[in-house]
Amino acid sequence: MGENVRGRLVVALDVGDLAAAEEVARRISPWFGVAKVGHELYADAGPAAFDRMHSLGLAVFCDLKLHDIPNTVERAARAHARHGVEIMNAHAAGGESMLRAFVAGAHEGARDAGFTPPITLAVTVLTSESDTSAFATRLEMARTSGCDGVVCSGAEIKYAHDAGLKTLVPGIRFAGTDAQDQVRVFTPADAARAGADWLVIGRAVTGADDPEEAASRAAAEVAEGLTGN
Description:
Number of domains: 1
CATH topology: TIM Barrel
Shape: globular
CATH architecture: Alpha-Beta Barrel
Strand content: 15-25%
Radius of gyration: 16 Å
């Protein structure tokens, strides 16, 4: 599978056990190049989860959605960035000052540890929410605060790209499958066709009877979407 596809695919390791997360990541790493470490896994393993995913040759998306007063967010972003994570996020609901602090902390932490600064993303509206009225304001805050991109649904990719921002898209499901707790869902092919820079896929792959087959299918759909077929 080409790196253009693999580098776009993010596996959501939403489990509370590092050994289980490592096993899943190892199995699907031929198709997925990025591992998402969220609250559940981080609560169990802490920064060791970042190190373990890096040891597998995967980039790391630190998905902790930082949201607090600017000083606290800046310090937290600095601490996470010192572990060499490639992507991290903060919630745009925290406001522009907080997002500026997030970007500053991320850059400072990476510089202190000798890493390339992580891609900084602002979470706009969760794909589990149907009310997107806050999207435009949060998108603008992401742009003016210096974030590199946003977390958004597939339907919002164009607006983010028009603002010069990269897009990471959760809520990815295969056609005809249960959307579960997601409201605004896209298929891998449709998200790729719309221009998603990264696609986050969790249970559709990790919960499949055959994760390797599901991962291969997701990669094939993304490749199809990128070619415009």
